[in-house]
Automatic annotation (TrEMBL):
<keyword id="KW-0560">Oxidoreductase</keyword>
<dbReference type="InterPro" id="IPR011032">
    <property type="entry name" value="GroES-like_sf"/>
</dbReference>
<dbReference type="Pfam" id="PF00107">
    <property type="entry name" value="ADH_zinc_N"/>
</dbReference>
<dbReference type="InterPro" id="IPR041694">
    <property type="entry name" value="ADH_N_2"/>
</dbReference>
<protein>
    <submittedName>
        <fullName>NADP-dependent oxidoreductase</fullName>
    </submittedName>
</protein>
<dbReference type="GO" id="GO:0016628">
    <property type="term" value="F:oxidoreductase activity, acting on the CH-CH group of donors, NAD or NADP as acceptor"/>
</dbReference>
<dbReference type="InterPro" id="IPR045010">
    <property type="entry name" value="MDR_fam"/>
</dbReference>
<feature type="domain" description="Enoyl reductase (ER)">
    <location>
        <begin position="15"/>
        <end position="330"/>
    </location>
</feature>
<dbReference type="InterPro" id="IPR013149">
    <property type="entry name" value="ADH-like_C"/>
</dbReference>
<dbReference type="InterPro" id="IPR020843">
    <property type="entry name" value="ER"/>
</dbReference>
<dbReference type="Pfam" id="PF16884">
    <property type="entry name" value="ADH_N_2"/>
</dbReference>
<dbReference type="InterPro" id="IPR036291">
    <property type="entry name" value="NAD(P)-bd_dom_sf"/>
</dbReference>
Length: 334
């Protein structure tokens, strides 16, 4: 197997030196184990947090060990009757071309004709579920709500925009970092308005123009200036699902907090953070709803597919810089 280890803990932005490529011969399978040829490996922003030491909701990655994370592939050798050769499985062994372990560490992945297996890492998997949980369970979205989503052209964001509309939002607004992404939001993803946060005008100003009557729900993938702008735009009883703060993941100084916190009091605003691990019980409801929307042609999705397991570190770095539209995945085969 070819795998990538954490060679050093990055300070600020990760670089090629953060990772080490290792080639390893796997031992023969033990009883009850399977060997899986990975087809797609996921790179996700949360992995940046795991490269740091310190308290978080998942343990830090170990130095000089393969990075873990979502991946999907096919069983190529099996000592476990419940997962015969050829079964499609997803798992959390991450950044490697071949994964091996007890059958219980692998979950069967649905193979839908005409739909790539990589969707089980994105729109039909972790990032789709994150969007669903954030809107339904954390922000308690209601029909008629005006919804603002940052990081809107990414994996979670594109899912959240569509799910918000399907759950009855009256207006959905998104922000993203390039003009092409902004155009895609309104033209392909059904957002009613979108803006580029890298334009000269402050986020608060652009949000006010897109939502002149204010917002009810904010799905936060970014933190920082975006969060302050959303607090400023909330109508009474506004609710934010704090999902990510990617604007802060590679900074070396502590972030400045929103300067308008008193509005949270005067407008009865709720800001609520969440991590998906506490909400896995929502997975069946998500699978049911998303399955129906998907089958009815209500959902579109994009994947930015980087070819070749060798390019996994660069794909991760590019993800943090915004090179992706929709879910960023690595196809193991070049
Ligand atoms: P994305 O597909 O959204 O990829 C990351 C995107 O972040 C980039 O494409 C880039 O787009 C944007 N970005 C990078 N830097 C900045 C910045 N300084 N300001 C604003 N946007 C920036 O990743 P995911 O959909 O997988 O994740 C989205 C967010 O959700 C992340 O914050 C992630 O940590 C979080 N998350 C949280 C989970 C939870 O359980 N709470 C689970 C899964 C994800 P652009 O070109 O627009 O800048």
């Amino acid at each position: 197997t070819i795998e990538f280890h954490l060679a050093e803990r990055p300070v600020g932005w990760p670089t090629a030196d953060t990772f080490r490529r290792v080639e390893r011969t796997l031992p023969p399978l033990a009883e009850g184990e399977v060997r899986v040829a990975n087809r797609f490996v996921s790179v996700d922003p949360y992995m940046r947090g795991r490269m740091n030491l310190g308290e978080s909701y998942v343990a830090p990655f170990e130095l000089n060990e393969a990075l873990t994370g979502g991946a999907v592939g096919h069983v190529v050798e099996s000592n476990a009757p419940e997962l015969p050769v050829g079964t499609a499985v997803s798992h959390d062994f991450g950044w490697r071309s071949v994964a091996q372990g007890p059958a219980a560490s692998f979950r069967r992945a649905a193979e839908i004709p005409g739909v790539p297996l990589s969707t089980s890492l994105g729109i039909l998997g972790m990032t789709g579920l994150t969007a669903f949980v954030g809107l339904r369970d954390i922000a308690s979205i209601k029909p008629g709500d005006v919804v603002f989503i940052s990081g809107a052209a990414g994996a979670v964001g594109t899912a959240a925009g569509q799910i918000a509309r399907l759950m009855g939002a009256s207006r959905v607004i998104g922000s993203a970092g390039t003009a092409a992404k902004v155009a895609l939001l309104t033209e392909r993803y059904g957002f009613d308005a979108a803006f580029n946060y890298t334009d000269d005008a402050p986020v608060a100003e652009q949000l006010a123009a897109a939502a002149p009557e204010g917002i009810d729900v904010y799905f936060d993938n970014v933190g920082g200036e975006h969060l302050e702008a959303a607090i400023g735009a909330f109508r009474r009883g506004g609710r934010a699902a704090l999902c990510g703060a990617i604007a802060e993941y590679n900074t070396t100084e502590p972030a400045v907090g929103p300067r308008n916190m008193s509005r949270i009091i005067t407008q009865s605003i709720t800001l609520r953070g969440f991590t998906l691990g506490d909400h896995v019980a929502a997975a069946p409801a998500f699978a049911q709803a998303m399955g129906e929307w998907f089958a009815a042609g209500e959902i579109v999705y994009d994947e930015t597919v980087v070819a070749g397991i060798e390019n996994t570190p660069q794909a991760f770095i590019d993800l943090l810089r915004g090179a992706n539209i929709g879910k960023m995945v690595v196809r193991v085969d070049a």
